[in-house]
Amino acid sequence: MTETRLETKTAALVEALPWIQSFSGSVVVVKYGGNAMVSDELRDSFARDILFMHSVGLKPVVVHGGGPQISSMLKKLGIETEFLGGFRVTTPEAMDVVRMVLTGKISRELVGMINSNSPKKKGLAIGMSGEDGGLFKATRKLTRDDNDNTVELGLVGDIVSVDPSAVLDLLDQNRIPVISTVAPNVSDPQEVLNVNADVAAGKLAQALDAKKLVILTDVEGLYSDYPDKDSLISQIGTDDLYSMLPRLQSGMIPKMSACLDAVSDNVAAAHVIDGRKQHSLLEEIFTTSGIGTIVLRGSRLKYADETRNVKEGLD
Fold it and tell me: What is the pTM of this model?
C-alpha cells in the first residue's frame, strides 16, 4: 500500500471519528431497497455497512420492501396483477406471494448475510415482520383510478399505529432488527396487508425517536429538476420540501413524504442516498459532505456543488 493510500485511509478514519462519537448509542432506521437488494456485491456491502454501524455503537434497524422480487415471483407463478394510482392491486393469492417473498425470502437472506459477516458468526440480526409483536397495524388503502374514481387496492394498507416495544427489546439485547413490511388489518387481525416500506420506515423512525432515517434508492438523491443531474440537492429543509412535494416523480413521493413526516416530528435528520454505490450508507453518515440528500428541519437548500453548511449532530 502506497503512502498516499495510507494517508487517504487515515484521513477517512479521522473524519469519521466525530460522527461516530456523536451518533454512538443512537437509533438509525435504514430502509433497504432498490438495486442494493438484487446485486450480490451490493447486498454484501450493505450487510458490512450495517455491521460497521453496529460495531461503533450505533443501533441500526433495517426495514425492507421487495417490489421487484415480488413482481418476478408473481410472473414466475403466472399470477397477473395490475397497478392503480401507482400501487399494486393485491389479491389474496398475490398476498400469499408477498408474504412469502418479503418474510420468507428477502428477510431470511438479509439476516443470514449480516450474521455470516458478523464477528465469530454471532447471530446479531433477527428477522421479524410488521405482524410480530403488534409492531404495525394498518387499514385498507384507497386510491383513485384514471377516471378519478375512488377504488380499493385489495390487500394494500396504510399504517395507522406503531408499537415499537418488540424492536426496542431487540435493541436492548444488542441485536439488529430486520423488518419486512406487512401488517395486520386493525379491524380484522386475521387479514394481513402489504404496506409501503418507505412509509413504514418513516413511521418506525418516529416511534423509536430515531436520530436518523436513511432511505436507499436507485438515484443519487433528490433532484429539483429530474432527471437533470446538475439539479441534485445536497441539503433541503422541511419548508422547501413541503412545497416541492406535489411536483415530484411518483416514485419519490413516498420516500420524501416519509422523510418530511419524520423530520417534522422528532427525527433529527433524514437521508435519501444511492443504494447502487458500495458503502454509500457509511459515506453519507460518517463524512462531512455526504453523498446524497439530507433533510433537516426548517428552510435549508443547497445543491450538490455547494458545501453543506449544516451537519446535524455535532452541536
Answer: 0.91
